Structure formats: C-alpha cells, structure tokens
C-alpha cells in the first residue's frame, strides 16, 4: 500500500536534482494540480525564496489559491466525483493498463485504487485473459472500488466526502448493471471507445453515461445486495421494497438504492404494512399486532439486516416514526 500524503503536502512535490555536466543543481518544490479540464504546475526554488522552508511556504500559498479558484474542498481526505487528468477510461477511479512482458507477450489488466480507513491507498488489479475477459475484469475493478469507498462511510476523516461517495456508488451500480446486459455489438463498441487514444477521457465519460441510461430501482437493489433477500439470503420471489414509501418520496429518493431493501414475500408484506421495522443496526422490530402470527409467517424474532448503510438511516428513521405500528421487538 501507498501512504496518503497529509493535507500539508497534498499536490506538492519535492525535487532535488544534483548538478550535472548539462546543467546546475535543482532544489525546489513543485505544485502539480491536475483536473480533467486544467493542468496547473509551478516551481518554487530554494534559491529564489532564500531557503527550503520559505519555498515550501510559497508553494503552499499558491496551492491554496488554486484550491479556492477551482472550488476544491480542502478537507484532509477527499473522494472526488470528477475525472483526474490521468484517467484514460472515462470511468472514475478505474483504468485499463497494458505492458510488454520479457517474453514479448502483452499483459493487459484493469486496475483501481482507493483510500483505506487507515489513510493508505489500496490498489487492485484484474487481468484480462482467457479466464477473465475484458468486461469481467472491468466489472471486477468497478466492484472493488465501490466496495472500497463504501468502507469509508463511517470514517470521520471522510465525513466531508459522504455525498460524493453516495453519488459514485449510484454511478457504479448503473455501470455494472449496464455491463451485465451488453450485447456483443455494444460490448465491441464500449471496448473500442475505452481503448481509443483519440477520444478525450471526458468525452468517454459522456459516452458511457449516455449508454448507461436510467436503471430501475430494483436493478440497483439486486446489484447492491447481491441478488439476495437482506434477511433470509433467498434468491427467489424477491421484492424491491422502498423504506420511505414511493408516494412520500421525492423523485431522487424514489431511485435512491439506499432507500430500499430486497425482501422475501412475508418480510416484504410486513415491512410495507408497518408490522415490522428495523433499527439502524439492522435489528428487527416486530409490532405487537403481528406477534401472534410471526412464527407462522416465518418472521423470526432474531432476524436482522447485516451491514445497513448509514445512507439508509434517514429512511429507516422515517419508517420507524411514520409507518411502524408499535414499539419493541419480540422476545
């Protein structure tokens, strides 16, 4: 893993080049701040500013001015929703790479990188070979990044990035659903677009966004929960249930995958009727009115949802306060 720079040195790099026959020595700080639409670099030499420390202070001041000018959040650790200038795939956080091996064969892979809760950077690679094709490797890289940034939701240092993380998860879900249903013609088009060196990364992003379109609420839930009931683990007869009802939700909330669960029939019906609800930790709450029939319906007192996202908590609070018909759970 790679150690993430502290806020103090983000986008600032040290250059110490010894004197050579072709020129003098270079001792300086360089600010490098690349975005999809801009490339900002500037040197701050020790000799010009009088000392290493003074040059660093000038570099920091310039960087902070750029942050303000470009509207960049200066929080310590930030997850962004815009493409970096170095991205060549058009998909945030993942890239396609290839290299020529010593035996002259070409090695190709999809890779991703994301911060970890302990402030390092984890990278994962997925080879494109006979076992794992292009789309499979791409999907694996996207899934790995989605899972990686999901681990940051409860990390205090990433509190300022929660909305961006939510936006990215929704984008990744849409792309993954799109990739699952590619026709051979569409797959060929997508691969050619991604691999093209003549198409800018922002144009690739726009093309992919246009092909993805709007996925259904249930499609997103199936992908988010692995196609299984969040309580029983069943894969058949599942219902996509809104936590905050469709009629009470805004257009954005109606399509928000965190406003829903995949549920088996009995749990789905009871949840929709307000006869059961869940705590933010996923423990089931059962209404007094349902207790006599709970066992017969297969609704267990120790049932729980594992890994409830903090993004679902406001919706669960609404369900408990507005829909749930009773307080407490069975014993």
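Sequence proposed for the structure above (331 residues):
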């Amino acid at each position: 893993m790679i150690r993430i720079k502290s806020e103090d040195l983000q986008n600032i790099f040290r250059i110490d080049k010894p004197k050579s026959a072709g020129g003098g020595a270079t001792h300086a700080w360089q600010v490098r701040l690349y975005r999809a639409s801009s490339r900002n670099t500037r040197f701050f030499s020790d000799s010009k500013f009088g000392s290493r420390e003074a040059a660093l202070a000038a570099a920091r001041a310039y960087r902070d001015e750029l942050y303000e000018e470009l509207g960049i959040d200066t929080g310590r650790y930030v997850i962004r929703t815009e493409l970096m200038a170095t991205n060549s795939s058009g998909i945030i956080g993942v890239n396609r790479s290839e290299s020529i091996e010593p035996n002259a064969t070409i090695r190709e892979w999809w890779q991703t990188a994301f911060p970890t809760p302990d402030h390092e950077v984890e990278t994962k690679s997925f080879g494109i070979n006979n076992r794992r094709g292009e789309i499979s490797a791409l999907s694996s890289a996207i899934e790995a990044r989605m899972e990686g940034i999901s681990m940051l939701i409860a990390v205090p240092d990433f509190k300022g990035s929660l909305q961006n993380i939510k936006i990215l998860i929704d984008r990744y879900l849409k792309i993954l659903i799109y990739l699952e249903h590619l026709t051979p013609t569409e797959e060929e088009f997508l691969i050619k677009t991604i691999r093209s060196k003549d198409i800018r990364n922002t144009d690739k992003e726009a093309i992919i966004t246009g092909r993805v379109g709007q996925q259904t609420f249930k499609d997103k839930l199936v992908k988010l929960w692995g196609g299984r009931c969040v309580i029983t683990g069943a894969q058949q007869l599942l219902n996509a249930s809104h936590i905050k009802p469709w009629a009470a939700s805004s257009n954005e909330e109606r399509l928000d995958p965190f406003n829903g669960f995949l549920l088996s029939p009995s749990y789905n019906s009871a949840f929709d009727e307000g006869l059961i609800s869940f705590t933010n930790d996923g423990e089931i709450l059962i209404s007094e009115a349902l207790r006599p029939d709970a066992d017969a319906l297969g609704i267990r007192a120790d049932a729980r949802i594992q890994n409830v996202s903090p993004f679902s908590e406001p919706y669960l609070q609404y369900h408990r306060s507005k829909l749930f018909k009773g307080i407490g759970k069975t014993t």
